[in-house]
Design goal:
32% of the residues lie in helices and 27% in strands. With 142 residues, it is an alpha+beta fold. It has a five-stranded antiparallel beta sheet with strand order 1-2-3-5-4, with helices on one face.
Length: 142
Amino acid sequence: MQTEAPSATEAVRLTIPAKPEYITLVRLALTGLAGLRSLTDETLGDLKLAVTEAASNSVRHAYGNGDGTVEVVYELAHDRLIVEVIDDGQGFVHEGAALDRDELDEGGLGIAIIQALADEFEVGARPGGTGSRLRFVKLLSD
């Protein structure tokens, strides 16, 4: 009999309706997963802000009438937390460069916040379909 080594990554997948009242669940899931690691209050606060901004962008912009879902995937490895926020909505184009403070509008500010808090950041079209995929990584100290 062959046994596999335990996975070095813990993953949680959460799908919520694209409605503002469900954003709290995104934060709660992150808090629960973060309980598996010793994180400072500052790091946890930064992660909550980043995931809230990412999920809120999908809730606000992906679907015109709020009919749809937002999927949040959390992957906790020994040295990092990877968060992906995915929707099937309209999608958007992000120029990739940090925006000038004077050019930031409500939508751009959320992206700028995530970029500032994350160690790695990607945003673009959802692979294999319509919609958006935002991915950020926060490196964790041992």
